[in-house]
Design goal:
This protein is of the alpha+beta class. The protein has two helices and five strands. 22% of the residues are buried.
């Protein structure tokens, strides 16, 4: 539902037309619960991909997005960025997973 709403929000701008989100398999589980999606479209007629990751650690929920040119590899994958962010959160607040 979140990914569909995000894509619909992008498509409110007539210059941006993105496909419905497709499930994106994250390389590793991020946080305690995680999911990913990819949508493809154009920004000013330049083909782009938008990768979304949603994860939760304790009571904190995180939404991340990476945008990169279609046909290229992103500098950092959404999974790598999510893992780095998750590990930094745990470093700053190690009790996040405690009840």
């Amino acid at each position: 539902i979140f990914a569909k709403a995000f894509t619909q929000g992008l498509n409110d701008d007539k210059e941006l037309q993105f496909t419905p989100p497709a499930t994106l398999t994250l390389q590793d589980k991020i946080g305690e619960v995680s999911a990913g999606w990819r949508s493809q479209g154009k920004v000013e007629n330049i083909p782009m991909n938008v990768d979304l990751a949603l994860f939760r650690r304790g009571q904190i929920g995180v939404v991340m997005a990476t945008i990169y040119l279609d046909g290229t590899k992103p500098t950092i994958t959404i999974s790598e960025a999510g893992r780095k962010f998750d590990s930094r959160m745990m470093e700053l607040k190690p009790d996040l997973t405690q009840p």
